[in-house]
Design brief:
The protein is mainly α. It has helices spanning 2-22, 26-33, 37-65, 67-81, 91-123, 128-151, 156-174, 192-196, 203-234, 243-257, 259-266, 268-291, 297-311, 314-323, 330-359, 361-385.
Amino acid sequence: MTAARVSVLVVFFVNGAVFANWAPRIPEIQNSLSIDVATLGFALAGIGVGGLAAAPIAAALIRRFGSRWAILASGLLLCTAFVLPAVAVSWWTLLAALVLLGGADAVMDISMNAQGVLVEERLGKSVLSSFHAAWSVGAVVGGVTGAAAAGIRMPVAAHFGVVGAVLILVLAAVGRGLLGPEPLASASDDDPDVRHVVVRPTAALAMLGAVVLLAGLMEDFPQSWSAVYMTTEEGAGPGSAGIAFVAFSAAMLIGRLVGDRIVDRCGPSTVLTGGASLVALAFLVVLGLSSFAADLPVLVIAAFAVAGLGSSPLFPIVFSLAGRLPGVSSAAAISIVSLISRMGFLLAPLAVGRVVDASGFGSVLGAIAAAGVVVAVIGWFYGRKFPVKTA
């Protein structure tokens, strides 16, 4: 099981590193295509469109071949498609590239979480937060790499090509350590859990879906828009525009490294409420600085770090709770919450691009803070209605 656990950690790392390398280079790609923020938001929504379209494919692949082969196939496609946005020649080719990228990411995301749940079950203890911590390590490393590449003005295509090739080699090196076909892969379409969970979702699953929908907005803004925000609102240069995302990702990593212990001590609903409250507070601070035209980029970066700390437990807790819902197939529940989270990542770029174009970043920051408050309330209510025993 040690080899399997290490392999899954590396897979999560690779997935996190891909999009983190992409985030700091978004302003350059936007400038090279001469598109405004609304058009950029429309193109970025391609990630969500691809994810929504590919989620059912992920479930079928896992049932047929197991999560191991689904991870390897989608990981290869993800690292290859990663280069395509760098060679886009128009907004619609960028959109097409991001649809493919989002689709590959969705399949990899669902399969690697399914593999993570399998490892967790065989180990007999909670380790899912540590896997998501590995994703955050990849995000930090990728963000630093992307910011450094932007700082030295390395051509985006060369940067993405090198990173994609390296990550493919890394995946190939750990592929044999992943667990082979599991019971999840052989789940029948006639399984009542799988057949009815979509048409009759439990209240608990609906609440978890609401959390990941809003968490998608809270995580997408730092990933897709922080560099644009720092450039347009804080006057940051190419090399420093990505620092806010790096701060967000680094704080998220710290939170996920200690997440399992905190959840065991305080309970998942309490941690959901506390984490979402931190996100709301952080973006209210950024909103306040923006409203008073305070040119304090260090405080903005610090607020993004607080938001990263607050966001860190949201997805691991939801996936863990979904995998343990009584009367619902673990695989089906994970697929559903992942699909709903993709809706959040689809809607967020569209909404942010339109709102920023119409009224600036202030309205967006307020909306994200409100989303944090809503998730905090859901976490509190979930704990009262569906109490979960901790270790």
